[in-house]
Design a protein that fits this description.
There is one protein chain. The chain is of the alpha/beta class. It has nine helices and 13 strands. The chain has helices spanning about 15-20, 40-50, 70-85, 100-105, 110-120, 135-140, 155-165, 180, 215-220, and strands at about 1-10, 25-30, 30-40, 55, 60, 60-65, 125-130, 145-150, 170-175, 195, 230-235, 245-250, 260-270. The relative contact order is 0.15. S-adenosylmethionine binds near residues 132, 134, 149, 178 and 198.
Length: about 270
């Protein structure tokens, strides 16, 4: 058995889901949690591999193991972790969809997009920077009317095409252009409507810590608060949210390969 300590877990996180089975003892200080448990070697090695070089909510996770894990166990766990990453939540499941490289990389997995859609409860949603349409389709499938904005004309065309693959093209209007220019022209109900933004994270984004100021598209959206009841932002798990007025939630994957991984943070800003 190994005594495993995980430090720098934000108190708002579903810690049992992230860490998995174990008699975890939790100590909270200033909104950050330390978790400690005795774990069998394979489970300790798995946790070390899964949480390696990751931060959640703005601080890098620290994992310590006593006695130290042998190199062979660490290597085997990392290989297994890499294999498991291939069984993560599916992006689009329907055939015939179109995605360029950025569209594919930034696509919200279908089931997670649908779950967000259900939460929106049928209101009008503006999707600011819709990419290939992953979230717009999720909102529309759940019964929302969607106005989607995308600056890249090719990706906007892909989003239109993909809404047809999912039979929701009647519910989604895709506008090609910059959010900054188009948002003020969209008619909204400030008592009900939601502005959703999934700004570009960049392929090499920092998985230990990123700042809210790293997402200029978010700032643009927050400036349009008066037009909406809520603004929902999908941001990297490593986003530093500690000085932020939004409600924060960590959204996990649902497939076996990512059910214990935080896929993104969902920040809800109220008007
Ligand atoms: C992370 S992707 C969105 C992915 C999408 N949520 C999905 O699941 O398919 C962000 C998109 O925002 C677009 N974008 C970035 N800045 C923009 C702006 N100022 N105006 C309009 N679109 C923008 C990018 O071209 C990119 O396609």
């Amino acid at each position: 058995m190994h005594r495993v300590t995980v430090d720098n877990l934000p108190a708002w996180l579903n810690i049992p889901q992230l860490l998995g089975p174990g008699a975890w003892e939790l100590t909270t200080r200033d909104g950050w949690v330390r978790a400690e448990a005795e774990l069998p070697r394979p489970q300790a090695a798995d946790l070390g591999a899964r949480l390696r070089n990751l931060g959640i909510g703005g601080r890098k996770l620290r994992v310590a193991c006593i006695p130290k894990l042998p190199r062979g166990a660490v290597r085997a766990a990392r290989t297994q972790d890499a294999r498991r990453r291939r069984q993560t939540s599916v992006g689009f499941s329907r055939s015939g969809v179109r995605l360029d490289e950025q569209g594919r990389f930034s696509l919200t997995p279908e089931q997670l997009a649908l779950a967000l859609g259900k939460r929106a409860n049928g209101v009008h949603v503006v999707d600011a920077g819709c990419g290939a349409g992953g979230n717009s389709i999720g909102f529309a499938r759940a019964g929302c009317r969607v106005t989607a904005i995308e600056a890249d004309p090719k990706r906007a065309a892909d989003a239109r095409h993909n809404t047809r693959c999912y039979d929701v093209d009647q519910a989604v209007e895709v506008l090609t252009g910059e959010v900054e220019a188009l948002l003020p022209t969209i008619s909204t109900d400030p008592q009900r409507d939601i502005l959703f933004v999934d700004p570009p994270w960049g392929r090499g984004y920092n998985r230990e810590r990123v700042a809210l100021t790293d997402f200029p598209l978010l700032a643009t959206c927050l400036a349009a608060r008066h037009q909406f009841a809520e603004i929902w932002a999908k941001l990297p798990p490593s986003t530093d949210v500690h000085a932020c007025e939004a409600a924060v939630e960590a959204v996990f994957g649902h497939a076996p390969g990512d059910a214990r991984r935080v896929k993104f943070l969902l920040l809800t800003f109220h008007a």
